[in-house]
Each structure stands twice: as C-alpha cells, then as structure tokens.
Write a structure and sequence with these properties.
Blueprint lengths: L2 H55 L7 E2 L3 E2 L5 H8 L4 E5 L3 E6 L4 E11 L5 E5 L4 E8 L3 E3 L6 E5 L3 E7 L5 E8 L5 E9 L11 E11 L5 H6 L2 E5 L7 E4 L4 E5 L3 E7 L3 E11 L1 E8 L8 E12 L6 E11 L2 H7 L12 H21 L3 H32 L1 H10 L6 H18 L7 H20 L19 E9 L3 E5 H18 L8 H22 L4 H24 L2 H10 L9 H23 L1
Antiparallel strand pairs: 1-2, 3-4, 4-5, 5-6, 7-8, 7-13, 9-10, 10-11, 11-12, 12-21, 13-20, 14-15, 14-17, 16-19, 17-18, 18-21, 19-20, 22-23
C-alpha cells in the first residue's frame, strides 16, 4: 500500500467519524425538540378538554354525551344535533344551468353551465362539487356559522328549494333559493323567523362569507388568467372597480356596495344585495399553471350586512351563474355588462356602438366567424380610407422623391458634423415643400387607427361568441392557434408557436419595409434608428405579444396589414413620379410661398432683433 492510499483511507475514516458525531448531535437536538412539541400538544389537549367540559356542563344531561361518544359543542340542543346530521344534495335545473345545493350550510354546491363545454369538451362547471362556500355568521347567545349545520329540507319544487335551521329557544333561519326559467339567475332569500328570543337585541349585524374555487376552462392559461378578475360595484357609479387580472389581489371596502363578481374570462359568478352590503373585504388568488387539479383562481368575499331589526325579517340576494355575454348581462341591468373589458370611455364607446352592432349584424346572416372578421376589417378600412388617403398619398410621393433624396445624402455625407446635418435637414424639408409632401403625414393613419386597433385588442379576447369557433387550421378563435407545440415552456415564446401571430408579424414587416424604404436617409442615425424600430422591433414585439393571445386578434391584425399593403401599392401606382420630379426641378431657384404662420414667425424674429439692437445702442 503506497503513501497516497494510506492518506486516502485516513481521510475517509476522518470524514466517516465526523459525520457520525454530527449525526448523533442532530438526532439528540431533534429528540429534545420533539419532547418540547409533545409537551405543548399535551398542554393544549388538557386545556381543550377542560373547555369542552365547561361547555357540556351547561347542557342538559341528555345531551352532555351523544351517541358514539361525541362531545357536545353547542349550548343549543337543536344546533348540536344539526352539527352532526348527514347532508343531502338537491338540485334546481332549467334550460341554461343546473345548480346543486347541499343542506350542510344550505348553500350552493356546484354550478353547471349548459350549452357550453370546457376546451377539451368536458362539462363546464363554474365551480365544481364542494368548490364553494356560502355561509353566514351571527351571534345567537353563542357565535355560529351556518356552514357548520345541516339544515332541514322544508320545501322542494321544480324551481324552489327551502331549507331551515331550528333553535331550541324558538324560531329558525331559513334559506330559500328560486331558479328562474330560461335564465342564469338564482334568487336567494335569507330569513330570520321568530328569532327575537334567540338573537340579543344589541346584535345589529351579521357576516357573510362567499368563496369559490374556479376551475380552468380555456386552452391557454396566460390568456385565461389575464382576462380573469374580481369586480365590485358601488350603486350609482358608471362602472365597477376591478382587481386581479391574472395577479393575486385583495381590497378592503369600508362603504356600501351593491354587488361583486368573480369573473373568469368568459363566465362569472355575480352576487348582488338589493339592500346593499355595509362593507367587506374581497380577494382573488390565482393557482399556478401546473396546478394538479387544474384550478384557475380562488375568490373570496367577507361581507358585513345589517341584521333585520328584532331578529325577524329577510335579506334578499341575487346570484348570476353564467356567461359574460354583453346583451345577456345588459338585459339584467345593474351595470353587470360593465365587467366585460371593452376599454376606456373612447374605445369602449366605439366598441359598444360600432364594433358590437356590426359584429351582431353580420352574425345574423353569416355563421363563419372568420368571414365575419374579414368583412368587419374591410368595412373599417373603407370607412377610414378617406381620412387616411392623404397620408398614403404623401407616403407614395415621398417614394417618388428617392432620386432627389439620394442627391442630398451624397451632398451631405458627414453625419458627425452638426452644421452639415442641419443643412441636410433644411435641404430635405425644402425638397418636401417643393413636392407638396408632408413628412409627418405617415403618422396620421397610426393616430386614426390606434383607437380601432385597441378596441379590437379588447373586443376579440373578451367576445364569448368566438369561443371554440373554428376557422381554417384554428380550432378556437378565442385562444391561440398552435402549429408547433414544444411540450415545455420556452422563455418569451411559451410552449407553442401561433401561425396567425407569425403571419401577422411577417405582413407587418413587409408593410413597414414598404413604407420606410424610401423615407429615411441611410446616413442619418435617428432615421436609421426609427427604421430599425419600425421594420424589425415592432413586428417581433407584436409576435411575442400575440403568440399567446386570441387567434381572432392576430387574424384581424393580419388582415388589416394586408389591406394596408394593397392600398399603399394601389396609391403608389396612381402617383406619376415623373410629374412630381418635374415639379420639384421646375421650382428650383424660385422662392417658396410662405405660410401665414411662417410670415408671422419671421416678423416676430425681426422685431426681436430690432429691440436687441436698440438696447445695445443705449448702452
């Protein structure tokens, strides 16, 4: 055995001994910690048993020990029995929805929205079985929550379910649910009957807890979560307040509010209190994309309400479990349709009074939504064409001036010389004036079409009519169309490539190249930078933005760019380049007519120079 082997064995032995010592110390510390935890748990158990003994001592002898050695919790014998009773599931159903209720807490248990399915074809539940909580807390000599008790099923018809929770001291709490025919609405009436001897007179409020776990329903998590949020509305306001939009959020509200909505991209659960909520705290938390149960978000609302005076009276509520369809929500009233994101006042006005009516008009006669979007794009382009013609024409004239622009670039090649660059800019502007061209004319189409583009950006992803509607290779116009699925998430790209988004980016590149090719000077740094942004950066950015968004949106942008290319090409063909160049050359050496603004500016400059000369003479 050589020297190196001996040293190796010694090191291994040292490491083994050191690890053994360290491990024994760790085990000793864990044992001490476990002993402390056991002591704390024992103390808590003793305290719990003593408290339980005190509570059961105040109950009648017959209830101090229940069957199965169950220890009594509540002072009221009927409440104690109701806390251990077995729950039943009952359902109300019409042409549009099926809502199940559980007698445990007398609350909604699940909500199935008919005529719609999830992206994979499975039944669409706004919340699955057990995925909701609807409970009231009130003081009745002891603090109780209705979710802890099994209500008695008192009445059941095709449209109504009535459940009651009785008290040994007299009276009961009643929950009545009524499902309207051919509707997504459920009326709820919470009643306190003969409770004056149960609820103390100084109790004036009760608390409502409403929570839902909303499952995923759409193909793309990013798009679905981005358009999912929580809304709440103050009576008399123009629109609701929204929080969330794909991010965890909570909000404390210390004033009266009319309703709140847990809003998925295309479906919502809305709760309205006609007598208004006194205050509340609302929150939404989003599950990660890889959630095993495919849940989207958990929404909660803890609301304070005024209790009917004297422990007798009713509090009405209204539920909406259904689609975010603009006309359906608007027909209900109460500003429910405002939860649909249609943009600010200008964009929203354009969407409500132009885009939606045009969309509905075409849909009456055409069932193919791809064709409808094409017709809408053509109509919009034709309507704005008279306004944009001058700009397209100006762009075409600038294209004709390329030979003259090349001469100016050759005359002033030094981009680092500031004085030379100023002369170059002056010569270029002089050329534009002689040709009757406005260099800023190309900005006008963008300014005019920006509200329209933004309106479409808000309309298509929020339009439930496009949901699961196929077109060409796309199976769902409301989601992205993937031609390549990576199987794993790639930074920036996501896990797929959308063909409509890719085609849109390519046509944007072609259009930018067409419009910028003859407008910028090669040796002008600012112009080169603008060219790079327009031709390369904007198409790339738009591809990344639209790759995970609605295919209908990318398809609209694609059509819009193609039509703009055709319009630009047609106008350029109609422009006589020789006439423009002849006009420029004929005006060389002649003074250019000055506008009134230029004349006033020159007069002001002359007056300023005269005043400065006079001041210098006085000195």
């Amino acid at each position: 055995m050589d020297k190196n082997s001996v040293i190796g064995f010694i090191l291994i032995a040292a490491i083994f001994i050191g690890f053994s010592v360290f491990q024994s110390r760790q085990m000793r510390k864990q044992a001490e910690l476990q002993a402390q935890l056991d002591s704390v748990a024992l103390a808590q158990s003793v305290e719990s048993q003593l408290a339980e003994a005190e509570r059961t001592a105040s109950l009648p002898d017959s209830l101090q020990t229940l069957p199965g050695n169950i220890q009594a919790i509540y002072k009221d014998s009927l409440l104690e029995a109701a806390s251990h009773a077995e729950a039943q599931i009952v359902a109300l159903e019409n042409e549009k929805i099926r809502v199940e209720f559980t007698t445990k807490g007398a609350q909604p248990y699940s909500a199935l929205v008919k005529d719609y399915t999830n992206f994979d074809g499975s039944p669409l539940y706004l919340f699955r079985a057990g995925g909701s909580e609807y409970s009231f807390s009130v003081y009745t000599g002891e603090y109780i929550r209705t979710r802890d008790f099994n209500f008695e099923l008192a009445e059941r018809t095709d449209s109504t379910v009535v459940m009651r929770l009785g008290f040994a001291g007299g009276g009961y709490i009643e929950q009545k649910y009524t499902l309207h025919a051919d509707s997504y609405q459920v009326d709820n009436l919470l009643s306190f009957v003969d409770m004056q001897d149960v609820i103390p007179r100084n109790v004036s409020a009760l608390d409502m807890d409403f929570g839902l776990t909303v499952p995923r329903m759409e193909k793309g998590y990013k798009n679905e979560s981005q358009y999912s949020k929580l809304d709440y509305y103050f009576e008399g306001d123009k629109k609701p307040v929204e929080i969330g939009r794909g991010r965890n959020a909570s909000r404390r509200v210390d004033s009266k509010l009319s309703w709140f909505a847990f809003q998925q991209q295309f479906f919502s659960a809305i709760v309205r209190a006609p007598q208004q909520f006194a205050s509340g705290e609302l929150g939404v938390n989003f599950f990660p994309e890889d959630d095993a149960d495919r849940n989207l978000m958990a929404c909660s609302a803890q609301m304070r309400l005024d209790l009917p005076a004297g422990g007798n009276g009713s509090i009405p509520f209204e539920f909406y479990f259904g689609p975010n369809h603009f006309k359906t929500l608007k027909a209900i009233g109460h500003k429910f349709e405002k939860i649909i994101p249609l943009g600010g006042w200008l964009v929203g006005w354009f969407t409500r009074y132009a885009i939606i009516p045009m969309f509905d008009l075409f849909h009456r006669f055409i069932s193919n939504f791809g064709l409808i979007i094409l017709l809408m794009t053509l109509v919009i382009k034709l309507v704005v064409f008279p306004l944009t013609y001058k700009s397209f024409s100006s762009s075409a004239k600038m294209s004709a001036l390329k030979p003259e622009l090349d001469k100016i670039n050759a005359k002033y090649p030094n981009a680092d010389n500031q004085q030379e660059m100023m002369k170059k800019q002056q010569a270029t502007m002089d050329l534009y004036k002689r040709a009757g061209v406005s260099p800023m004319g190309g900005c006008l189409p963008t300014l005019l079409t920006f509200p329209i583009l933004w309106a479409m950006f808000r309309f298509f992803p929020a339009s439930i009519e496009l949901r699961q509607q196929p077109f060409l290779w796309c199976k769902d116009l409301s989601a992205y169309d993937s031609i390549i699925d990576f199987g794993t998430r790639v930074p920036i790209f996501g896990d797929h490539i959308s063909l409509f988004a890719l085609l849109m980016a390519v046509t944007m590149w072609l259009y930018s190249k067409m419009t910028m090719s003859n407008q910028t000077a090669a040796n002008d740094p600012s112009a080169s930078s603008m060219r790079f942004m327009s031709v390369w950066m904007m198409p790339i950015m738009m591809f990344f933005i639209c790759n995970s968004l609605s295919a209908a949106l990318s398809y609209y942008y694609l059509l819009s760019q193609l039509i703009s290319i055709v319009q630009t090409w047609a106008i350029r063909k109609s422009i006589n380049k020789d006439e423009i160049l002849a006009k420029v050359r004929a005006s060389e050496g002649k003074p250019l007519p000055k506008s009134k603004w230029q004349q006033r500016l020159e007069e002001a400059q002359k007056m300023q120079e005269q005043q400065m000369r006079q001041q210098q003479r006085r000195r």
